[in-house]
From TrEMBL:
Coiled coil: none annotated. It comes from the Bacteria. Gene3D superfamilies: 3.30.70.120. It holds the Pfam family P-II. GO terms for biological process: regulation of nitrogen utilization. It comes from Prochlorococcus marinus (strain MIT 9211). This is Transcriptional regulator. GO terms for molecular function: enzyme regulator activity.
Length: 93
């Protein structure tokens, strides 16, 4: 089992969820209003008032074959709008 963490601008949430559905992920968790600091920018809740928006964090648990489909579907979205995706091992308790 793999865990996929996607962090990106909240404005791209619909496009990311559409890409996940197209890859037939079994489910996902969406955390809106994610804030924090990256290597080049700080994202705070104040950015919502500027129209730039905050980030969203989407977590997916699925098999490696599904991760490969997700990778194909979201690569262009993340490279154009920005964002990161990380895959790690997940073990159910």
């Amino acid at each position: 089992m793999k865990r996929l963490d996607l962090i990106f601008g909240e404005r791209e949430l619909d496009a990311i969820l559409t890409a996940l559905e197209a890859a037939e992920v079994p489910g996902y968790t969406v955390l809106k209003h994610a804030t924090g600091k990256g290597p080049q920018t700080v994202v705070s809740e104040d950015m919502e008032f500027t129209g730039l928006g905050a980030n969203a964090h989407v977590i997916v648990f699925c098999e490696l074959e599904t991760i490969d489909k997700v990778r194909e579907n979201i690569r262009s979205i993340l490279s154009y709008y920005g964002g990161v995706a990380y895959v790690s091992e997940a073990t159910e308790l």
